[in-house]
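Re: your question about D-3-phosphoglycerate dehydrogenase

S., sorry for the slow reply, the queue was backed up all week. Below is exactly what I fed in.
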Amino acid sequence: MSKPVVLIAEELSPATIEALGPDFEVRAVDGAARDELLPALADVDAVLIRSATRMDAEAIAAGRRLKVIARAGVGLDNVDVQAATQAGVMVVNAPTSNITSAAELAVGLLLATARNIAPANQALKGGAWERSQYSGVELLDKTVGIIGLGRIGALVAERLKGFGVRILAHDPYASPAKAGQLGAQLVTLDELLTQSDFITIHLPKTPETLGLLDEEALSKVKPSVRIVNAARGGIVDEAALARALAEGRVAGAGIDVFAREPTTESPLFAFESVVVTPHLGASTLEAQEKAGIAVARSVRQALRGELVPDAVNVSSGFIAEEVRPGIPLVEKLGRIFTAVAGGVPAQLDVEVRGEITAHDVSVWKVVALKGLFTDVVEDPVTYVNAPVFAEQRGCVVRLLTDPDPGDFRNVTTLRGTLADGTIVSVSGTLTGRNLVEKLVGVGDHDLEVPISEHMLVFEYTDRPGIIGAVGRILGDAGINIGGMQVSRHEDRAIGVLSVDSDVPAALAAQLSETIDAKTFSVVDLQD
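Result:
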C-alpha cells in the first residue's frame, strides 16, 4: 500500500519532518509559485504551509485527494477556511506555538518606544552622540492598556507586572476574575484609551476589530501615549496613526504588522518615534519549531482518521482522554442508526448517560453526524463537512446528558425523529477492561451484542422457527453467524445477528420476506 503524501510548501524546521515520521511520502514545492503549487496539489493528502502559500478555493479544488491543510503558525489569512470546510478538508494550525514569542516582541516594542532605542541606535551608528535628543520615559507607575486579554495579552500582562505598572484591560470576553488574577482591571475601551500611557493590542483580525484604533479612537488618547501593535495589520488605521503622530496627538508607536504585507512603504516610516519590524511576532527558532511539530502531529492524527482538537473548522474543543475511547463507538452508532432508520432524521438527539458526563462530551455531536452521513452521501464524509451535510439536509442535532447511568456505567443513545414522525433509536456502550463496543438497545428493546463489521437487525412477530429459518438461509449462502441475540416485548421481537461477511441486498430481501419482517436492516461498518 502506498504511503499518504504530505506536501511541504514552505521552509519548515527539520523537527517538523522528523515529527511526521517515516509513515509518509514527503514532497516539497515553492508554495508562493502558483504555477508550481497547483499541479503539485493534485495527488497529495496533506499540505503544510506558513504565510506565503495561498490556499484559496482554486488551490483546494486542485487538491483532489486533499484531507488536511496545516498552517505552521497561528494566522489563517491565507487559507479559505469556508472553501476547505465545504470540501471536507480539515484546517489545522498551531494556536499556541508563538504566544510566548509574540508576547515578548510586544514587550520589546513597548520598551523600545519608551526609550527611543531604535533612533538612538541609528544615530550613534551614523556618528552622532545625541543623548539629550533621545531621552525617554520610565514604565514605573505608568498605566498600560491591553486590548485583548487572550493568551498573548495575558502573557504580556504577566511580564509587565514586574515593571511596576498599572494595567488596564479591555476584552468583552474576559471575566473580572481572570483579569484580577493577572493584576489587571477590566474597563471600557474609551476608559482604556483616555487613561493609558501605553496601549498594546492583542486581538484577532475580524470585521469587528478591523480599524478599531481609527481617527475617532485616536482622538481620545493622551498626547504622551505610545501604541504597540504586534497582533494583526489593519486593527490600527495606519493613516490615522500617522496623522496623530504628525500633529503631536500620539508620542510614538511600535508596529510589527501592517494592513498590506509585505510592505516597504508606509507613512509611519517617516517618524523617528515609530519602531517598525517586518511581522516578527512568530519569528523565533523556538516558535517555528513548536509550530512545525504541532502541525506535524495534527497531520498524523488527521490522516489516521482521528479527530484533531486543534482543527479550526471542526467544532470539537478540548477532548478529555476519558472521552476519546467513545469516539469510534459513537461514529458506529451513527452508521447503525441510518441503516436501521433508512434515512436521515430531521432531529437527532445525542443522549449521554453516566459518569462520562462529568467531562465535556460535546464532540460526540459532530462524531455522530459523521457516522450518520457516511453511508448516505456520495462525497467523502469528514469531521469537517458532516455538520455542513446536516445543515443542508435540515438535520438539527442536540446533546442531552444525564449523570444517572442506568444499567451500564455509560450509555450513549442516538434518538432521531424522521420526517414522517417516526422515532428511531440505537444505544451503545463500552464494557470491560478492553472497552468492548456493544449495541445495547434498538428502540425500546434492550440488548447486549458486540458491534461487528457486518450485522443484521430485524423486527418481526415473535413465533417459533424464525431464527432457525434465518440461520438456514444464511448457511445455504455460505455466511457464518458469529453472534446473535433476541429481545422480546409481548409478540414483538428484535433480532440482532453478527455475521462474518457482507449480506447482499437480494439475500436480505429473501430473509425479510421469509420471516415476514416488519423491518430488516443490513449494517455494514467495513471501511
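The longest strand covers residues 423-431. The mean pLDDT is 93.

Happy to talk it through on Thursday.
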